[in-house]
Amino acid sequence: MSWLDQLAEHVDELRHAGVLQQNGQSATALPILDRVLAAASDPATRAYALVQRFGALINLGRIGELAAAMAAAAEAVREVPDPYLRGQMHAFAALGAHLQSNLDRGVTHLVQAARALAAVPQRDSETAWGWHDLAMAYSYLGFHGQALTAVEQAREIGAAAGLAPEVFAAPGIRLRNAVALDHHGDTDGCLRVLRDMDAELSRYLATDRLRPGSRTVYGYALARRAALGEPTGPEAARWLTGGGDSARTRDLRHLGSVCLSIASGRPDQALAMLAAVPVSAEVLGPAEPARLRSICHASAGDHAAAHAADRYAFRLAALRIDQLRDGYLDGVAARLDAQETHRDPGRYGDETLTDPLTGLPNRRQLERYVETLLSRGERAAVGVCDVIGFTTVNLRHGRHCGDLVLQRIAGVLHRVMRRGDFVARFAGDEFVLVLPGAGPHQAAEVARRIGTAATTENWQALVPGTSIGLASGWSEVGANGRGLSAALAAAAASRKPTTT
């Protein structure tokens, strides 16, 4: 008996929705999941359906709906202490964080997903697919080695459940690995991986075990080889058709057509196609369109433009490495802080230093941070940031939506701050920002970035009909002996709406 068979309700509908998603038909699976949720009362059934619905929205690229879907799934999973559900939810949450460009949060979910799935006692098909989805999340976030390890775990568990290894071929993992090698200058390594994928496609065709959702992945691998100058025959265009309704599939079709235009000696057409249709930076990395532009220019004989595009592609690829390094440093710092707390429990007692809703430092941790900063004789810019329209959100949509807005604002602030800056939730809808060593000009730039980020958020999907904005004011601590209380009062008095 599989994990899914143990549910009390709607097992057949949920199994059908799962098969549709595995075959790249998330748009068809979504209304099935919604019907189950409308009728189901069993907590485990609802939790499973909510997690799968969250995954379907990720596949479809409906980013504006992810925050609410994840909150609903996470709340349901908390009520059902099941490691499989928890692992699956965190694997999807890592993908969601990736789509929202929050690498730090994504890495946290990866760790939580791996720990939860490792605790699952069942070796059934659902657990195998959980490891497969975790492998996808690892791959999208750039952890290619961990992705390969996770997909091997999926194959091993799947074999115990009677599934063929080909079911978990996961060509997308190796495709992202291949283009990452090319982005960093190892084109020969990229071609080796793409050739292996071509040989694998031939084997799967012979056994008739190719998953429909893998079509465009193999098609893009063929087209990318052709763009790099290796003949692949006429098959690439055929494989770029079909493959499901996901946002990934649409982008792969488009970029594959760009590659085929390059291969057929039409670089100008390929450049026009790249300019006409933007693609998500999350499918093959932000560097892929720039790398394709470089190949276009080289094919047209404009080597100066090709070199400039290659430099830009390399810089975009290197940004991810810098983010990972920053996250590693933050992780080490957090571990040292935890060790210090453990060594001296009397110093901290039972104090809570984190806001449970947003995960940000709270007022107590802010005060301690500024006290330490001032004790070293340092100074910093201090900002007070309020949410415009927050009262209306609570009145019109309820406090749950208000909480989701605060979580989204916390993500916006965390995303735009400079390395080493400090963000805390102070009270209610009020956030405090501390920029060590910064003066008025740096504070103004951060305020501008906050305004831009807040304006580009899709608030209407979260709280339809309600306008959301941010107001911020700035002051300094450490200047002329000014302490935190005086700085906060001065910043609050100077608050005005942030502008882009």
Automatic annotation (TrEMBL):
Protein name: Diguanylate cyclase domain-containing protein
EC number: 2.7.7.65
A GO MF label: diguanylate cyclase activity
Top-rank lineage group of the source organism: Bacteria
Highest classification ranks of the organism: Bacteria, Bacillati, Actinomycetota, Actinomycetes, Micromonosporales
Native species: Actinoplanes sichuanensis
Classification via InterPro entries: Diguanylate_Cyclase (IPR050469), GGDEF_dom (IPR000160), Nucleotide_cyclase (IPR029787), Rev_trsase/Diguanyl_cyclase (IPR043128), TPR-like_helical_dom_sf (IPR011990)
Keywords: Nucleotidyltransferase, Transferase
Record SMART domains: GGDEF
Domain GGDEF: 378-500
